[in-house]
Automatic annotation (TrEMBL):
It is found in: Cell membrane; Cytoplasm. Gene3D superfamilies: P-loop containing nucleotide triphosphate hydrolases, Signal recognition particle SRP54, nucleotide-binding domain. It catalyses: GTP + H2O = GDP + phosphate + H(+). Keywords: Cell membrane, Cytoplasm, GTP-binding, Hydrolase, Membrane, Nucleotide-binding, Receptor. The gene is ftsY. This is Signal recognition particle receptor FtsY. It comes from Ravibacter arvi. Belongs to the GTP-binding SRP family. FtsY subfamily.
């Protein structure tokens, strides 16, 4: 099994269950709209537009999807409402493909990634950032990879303590200097330690405050610059963690962080128990940044590698 092959039948069932409310929000309502109608007319498309927007797909992305469906309907004047589900599924899948949110290859297995592979994790407090780091560390560790964590969110004692707890829980070392210390010094020492012990993955937690963009930008830039003194190509990935259950707030946070630093991948958490799963589609479409992980439950293994095909299948499952 490759390091990114986190999917199994059991995981697919977790994904199905986690996206149930989002599925009902879109397709339960859509099925009620088309009752008694035989063709996809303007009224049906207007209803579909309203459903997608209220499911946090986002206005621009929704308009794009509706426009594509309209063109398909115009080509085939006799498109039935029964075909609307299929068309919607195909257009969402196409958007996710275009936006590079595709299944991750088994790069660790084939040793294509640099060693150590440094991931800098950003995101506001409360989105599940530290929990995401802990779950990632657990899954890498379970796959036989040597992991080091860096507690560089030094503005909150709780953040440092929480990461230390995760380190103990998943049996990986945590480099920390305590609260109110220099975050970049912690990041530097985490990378140094990772290189010394031959770590495969180094994950650095950073401050979760959306203070002024200038301060945020300076802080993240300094962490990068200091880390690069020891490992010039690091960080190899900047992972932004967003809380999917906040819907459009997650989109606003993504805008702020993408202005403050170069974000290369996304983790969207807390999709279970919310009807806002459509936000994954909108965020992927607006930012053109790969969605790499999604959180669909509380369990250690419920942070799943985002698999476009599996996601679309679960969202559209009859």
């Amino acid at each position: 099994m490759g390091i990114f092959d986190f999917f199994s039948r059991e995981k697919k069932e977790t994904l199905d269950k986690g996206l149930e409310k989002s599925k009902e929000s879109i397709f339960g309502r859509l099925s009620r709209v088309v009752i008694g109608k035989t063709t996809v007319d303007e009224e049906v498309l207007d209803e579909l537009e309203e459903i997608l927007i209220s499911s946090d797909v986002g206005v621009e992305t929704t308009v794009k999807i509706i426009d594509r469906i309209e063109k398909r309907v115009a080509r085939d004047k006799y498109t039935s409402t029964g075909e609307l589900d299929r068309m919607l599924r195909e257009e969402v899948a196409a958007l996710l493909t275009e936006n590079r949110s595709v299944s991750i290859s088994n790069s660790f297995e084939t040793e294509q990634l640099p060693k150590p592979y440094v991931i800098m994790v950003v995101g506001v407090n409360g989105v599940g950032k530290t929990t995401t780091i802990g779950k990632l560390a657990h899954q890498f560790h379970q796959h036989g990879k040597k992991v080091v964590l860096g507690a560089a969110d030094t503005f909150r004692a709780a953040a440092v303590d929480q990461l230390k707890l995760w380190g103990k829980r998943v049996d990986v070392p945590v480099i920390e200097h305590g609260m109110n210390t220099d975050p970049s010094a912690v990041a530097f020492d985490a990378v140094k330690k990772g290189v010394e012990i031959g770590a495969d993955v180094i994950i650095i937690d950073t401050a979760g405050r959306l203070h002024t963009k200038v301060n945020l930008m300076n802080e993240l830039t300094k962490i990068k610059r200091v880390v690069q003194k020891f490992l010039p190509e690091a960080p190899h990935e900047v992972l932004l963690v967003l809380d999917g259950s906040t819907g459009q707030n997650a989109v606003i946070q993504a805008r702020e962080f993408t202005k403050a630093t170069e974000v290369t991948s996304l983790a969207i958490t807390k999709l279970d128990g919310t009807a806002k799963g459509g936000v994954v589609i909108g965020i992927s479409d607006e930012f053109k940044i790969p969605v790499k992980y999604i959180g669909v439950g509380e369990g250690m293994n419920d942070l799943q590698v985002f698999n476009r095909e599996q996601f679309v299948d679960s969202l559209f499952k009859k």
